[in-house]
DNA sequence: TTGTATTTTTAGACAAGTCTAAAAAAATTA
DNA sequence: TAATTTTTTTAGACTTGTCTAAAAATACAA
């Protein structure tokens, strides 16, 4: 249907669209670790195929078709991640690269059956919502720990940074999806956040607090 | 590790090597539905990487390394086919194309865990042996129905033709893996074979008899 | 064994996707 | 608003894998 490169561009544009409506050439280049000139070339191809809205120098947005394709890739990615963790017992920090390859397997019938096989999960191992076969999914109303008030409590429900390094750190601290925590104090000097979990205090840096999401 | 094209060439060469030691450029071209000139180009690349033994005009054979890679691709293909049929309940005639894509997912850890998840199966849905993680597998000592004597009986255990059309035909006739049959008669006029299965007679053409394998 | 047919290789071209370097447009700043 | 910086695009080149057409090697047949 679409080439590997096309799918990766659509996914990148989708991801960047969540932050700001219009996506710039340089943003895409950074996201895909490629050069702006390569991006420009590809944008013309995607525009020709009516997958994006593109006018020179004006940045891009996905068309309805483009967004559908992107959401479908994300659905495939997250279902494979769920499979790898729940069925093959990989750890949550080990699955991203594999799912990155698996998301390009083209059969939708395959993905729908995989979905059914696993009991139609709604969240992947990192807490991200899994779109259903029509592309619908709950938007995440999660908050970064760094944004909530002192004495708030909530359930760890997602991450912003999906890197192995970050996920391994969280694992080590016991800060995994589903854990209940209370924000006790924010140290003004360096914005270190003091949490309480299982009646024990735990300090996390501003960076970590920015990338760890809770449901209130 | 290796490109998609390289993997497909190695697989094709491996497959053809089972019939005759040395494989010709034209054979590979036919197998991959490409042109002889394209094959020549790729053979030089594979030889440079020490995956095949190649001298101009002399045909090719796999090196030890090349064979290892090829067997690993076959292992991946057959495990995914098994997964698709046993876990996602696809029919045996529906899985080839999907597995053709899935076999290129590169992680060996993934494949080893998939293998374990399914209980280390030794045969794929078409009766072909699945290499273990060291590349070892039982060679098929199966015989085409067309080659056995009248009154022989045996268990349907494999196919030579993996096309949907053939597999669907077998399914319709009930000629599936595991069924016990007896060869009753070979009609000399056109080599039609008369079988008995579940106490009923069944006629199959020479072509079908050539592509259906039994264990005695 | 010589000529013909077949197979294989070479030569040159093309598409996809990438790159560097330079030009053009837009944004920023003074 | 004019000058400078940043962003984006264009131009031209490279790689992988493919193709067609022609040349070279091998196989076959009289």
From TrEMBL, chains A, B:
Belongs to the DtxR/MntR family. It comes from the Bacteria. SUPFAM superfamilies: C-terminal domain of transcriptional repressors, Iron-dependent repressor protein, dimerization domain, Winged helix' DNA-binding domain. Homodimer. The keyword Secreted does not apply. InterPro entries: DtxR_MntR_Metal-Reg, Fe-transptr_FeoA-like, Fe_dep_repressor, Fe_dep_repressor_sf, FeoA_core_dom, HTH_DTXR, Iron_dep_repressor, Transcriptional_repressor_C. This is Transcriptional regulator MntR. The lineage of its organism: Bacteria, Pseudomonadati, Bacteroidota, Sphingobacteriia, Sphingobacteriales. PROSITE patterns: HTH_DTXR. It is found in: Cytoplasm. In the presence of manganese, represses expression of mntH and mntS. Up-regulates expression of mntP.
